[in-house]
Amino acid sequence: MDILRNILMILHFVGLASLLGGVLVQLRSIRTGDARILPAILHGGYLQLLTGVALVAVIQGADLGEVNSITIGVKLLVLLLLTGLAIFYRRRTTRTPQWVVPTIGGLALLNIVVAVLW
């Protein structure tokens, strides 16, 4: 189970890199008003969500350690909000508002802060 946990953790970090990488690529486009939700942002959010839930299940199921339920709940809420924004604005045919991409990036950073400091 330790190997599975490590693989899930690596995939979780890959999802984070995809998410933040997509946001960083779009930062220049925010000034011109052409920012959009890239597939990297959306798929990174999906991967974070999937691997995060799987990590909690593996850690709880195999007694690999304690999981703080409040921290996990806050992280899940932030990630659902982030992914929901990405899904909603990815499917829109009109321009993506300028606040969406920085908000998604900020929520991703908030999730990192919660994971590290809480």
Would you mind describing this structure in some detail?
- The mean pLDDT is 92.
- The longest helix is centred in the N-terminal third of the chain and has 31 residues, at 2-32.
- 81% of the residues lie in helices and 0% in strands.
- The chain is mostly helical and 118 residues long.
Task: State the main characteristics.
118 residues; mainly alpha; 81% helix
Topology:
Elements: H1 2-32, H2 39-61, H3 69-91, H4 100-117
Helical proportion, percent range: over 70%
Q: Provide the β-strand percentage band.
A: under 5%
The string of secondary-structure elements, in order, is HHHH
Q: What is the count of structural domains?
A: 1
What Rg, in angstroms, do the CA atoms define? 15 Å
Mean pLDDT level = 92
Globular, elongated, flat, extended or rod-shaped: what is the shape? elongated
Number of E-state strands? 0
Count helical runs. Answer: 4
| Cα-to-Cα separation, first versus last residue | 25 Å
- Look at the helices and sheets and give the structural class: mainly alpha
Main beta-sheet annotation: none
- Low-pLDDT ranges: none
